[in-house]
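Now for a concrete sample entry.
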Amino acid sequence: MQKINHLYWRAGFGLSPQEWEEKKNWTINKALNDLFKQAQKARPLNNPSSLSNMNPNMMNKSALKELIEKERKKVGERNAEWILRMSSNNESALLERMTLFWHGHFACRSRSGHLAVNQLNAIRKHALGNFRDLVLAIAKDPSMIRYLNNQQNKKQSPNENFARELMELFTIGRGHYTEQDIKEAARAFTGWSSNLKGEYVFRRFQHDYGQKEFFGKKGNFDGTDIIDMLLEKRQTAYFISSKIYRYFVNTKIDEAIVRDLADGFYRSNYDIGQLMRRIFESPWFYEAKNIGHKVKSPVEYSAGLIRLLDIQFENQNGIIFLQRALGQTLFNPPNVAGWPGGKSWIDNSTLMLRLSVAAAILNQAEVAFRPKAEAEERVRKMGRLKATVNLGRFKELTAGIPDQQLFDYFKSYLLLADTKTSPMLFRRMMNGVKTREQLIQRGLVFFTSLPEFQMC
């Protein structure tokens, strides 16, 4: 059961009570087949937008500005929709988890709800596919083009921002290219732009068609050629494999394993799905050193908590509020390097908040706190997070479990990290409970308030 729990926390966002009851005794192979099957069946996100049908030539500046502002506000709506998708039993947990990983890898601040979803769809399409296709899709993504200033990358005045991050953060890693390589790559990406509708366009009169020299090779290269040459380097396979290992397995690299994974990734022509399947079915993935030692990111924690408790927010602002308070807001990374992750997710203020959020929601109280980024005045004005839970399904699924065995049930289901918490302390907290529903509620409060619940 622990292995299944571990798999679903790393390849998804944990298991809802009904999923736990159904899948806790599955074999790893059956679970993996189910995860990958669901990912293949997932559909693109619907992305209705007034930007798609607009004609910039028929709009005055005031109307255009109003439309752009409207799209900016929709980023929060798309954020909340994605969190709810992550936490839904009816969606592909693996695909959403992989999309979240690549969202952090190709860190990008989206200023439009339309562009944010377009980028998500591009990532979701290739998240378990071919890495080359994914990199090329990102290079042509209007949100990324604008974020890294490739709109300004023109033949007469090349802008190096995208070319630099493509190499340093997205493919081969720092130290494996020269400043001259960056300059030449920037020339290759000149003219890769977007229009006001948020569509990729190639502006041929802004493109540098001259000869370039990249990695010692000379030719009339464009951006696609640069991506191909980066992927020809085995270092790129190693860089991506090591980052995936740190995210999905352990922040401490096992060099021999990563080298082996990178070799297979390179020989597969960068097949992401094959790499992930190999990781999740390997015996070392389920070794004790890799279970319960990873701090849940705020998004992982939030999506998992919503899935666990079937949380219903009074309004979607509560979902955004929680992310900001915990220090991770989708579509708004701190910089192009993304979120640092690991132990950086926890400090004194966020730990105390994490330990109290589930308890407050379970007790149907209001959670009043300051967000981590206290300078955000409009977030502070929200003031309170209001949400309710539905414990009906929980009550039904635990009906056959005697009261004295609930400690072991909750422990095996909710905790992956080792805990020294004793059944005696648990029973002491249960004193005075009059109904089975209250017992379940207090049990959930008890376990979700433990530091070990922050780990997966």
Summary: The first helix runs from residue 2 to 10.
